[in-house]
Write a structure and sequence with these properties.
The structure is a single chain. The relative contact order is 0.07. About 55% of the residues lie in helices and about 25% in strands. The chain has helices at about 5-85, 125-145, 165-180, 190-195, and strands at about 90-95, 100-110, 115-120, 150-155, 185, 200-205, 210-215. A hairpin with a 2-residue loop joins strand 6 (about 200-205) and strand 7 (about 210-215).
Length: about 220
């Protein structure tokens, strides 16, 4: 109970002092709120920027992947048509599986108005698979960035291709070497493929020793 003006003045002074302290705390809290708002805005701005960069990188990756897809399809198709002398085409289908791109290969043949789409291993035997495998190796070397230097090394690249088309394979390899300015080193038992080489060597086994004989030089 307040009994005098002096006590009242003292009480009022205490209240004013308390209010002043609380207002100081309030101002500090308001400053912290503004700082946190600015911090949150900066985080949101950075988040938006990261999202935009992520979308840009994704679209750039998709564009580059589609460009490579078109180049590979074109080269493999040209190879198949050159060797087999028909309208066979090569197609790549890409889909996302568990966050990763997955590619499926198909061979397309048109007979009149009918389109036949099959997996390479189901299309006309192993010869088609051999040629696709050969063309894919060449394609990957050519579309890779940075360029992969060095020779193309092949081991029996057309062992399932029939004799009807082996001359076309030989000519395709020769033209490929000239077009892309890339040396080809090949191991083969096929005389037609060996005949296109600048240098050819026959390796034979006598007893337990290997003998190397140079057989062509052009």
């Amino acid at each position: 109970m307040i009994n005098s003006y002096e006590e009242l003045d003292g009480y009022i002074s205490q209240i004013k002092s308390y209010i002043s302290k609380e207002e100081g705390k309030k101002e500090k809290i308001l400053e912290q709120i503004e700082e946190n708002k600015k911090f949150i805005e900066d985080i949101q701005s950075e988040t938006n920027l990261i999202e935009k960069v992520s979308i840009l990188l994704q679209r750039t990756s998709e564009f580059a992947r589609n460009q490579a897809k078109v180049q590979i399809e074109s080269l493999v198709t040209n190879c198949l048509q050159y060797v087999f002398e028909n309208n066979i085409e090569f197609e790549i289908e890409i889909e996302e599986l568990y966050g990763k791109a997955n590619a499926e290969f198909y061979v397309i043949t048109k007979v009149g108005d009918t389109v036949i789409k099959t997996k390479p291993e189901q299309s006309r035997g192993g010869g088609v698979v051999d040629i696709i495998s050969l063309a894919l190796r060449i394609s990957f070397l050519q579309v890779h960035k940075p360029r992969i230097e060095g020779p193309l090394i092949l081991d029996e690249p057309a062992k399932h291709v029939s004799e009807d088309y082996i001359f076309n394979v030989a000519d395709f390899l020769k033209r490929t070497s000239e077009m892309f300015d890339r040396q080809i080193i090949m191991v083969t038992h096929n005389n037609h493929l060996a005949s296109i080489s600048t240098n050819a060597y026959r390796v034979s086994m006598k007893d337990t020793e290997s003998h190397i004989e140079k057989i062509t030089s052009s």
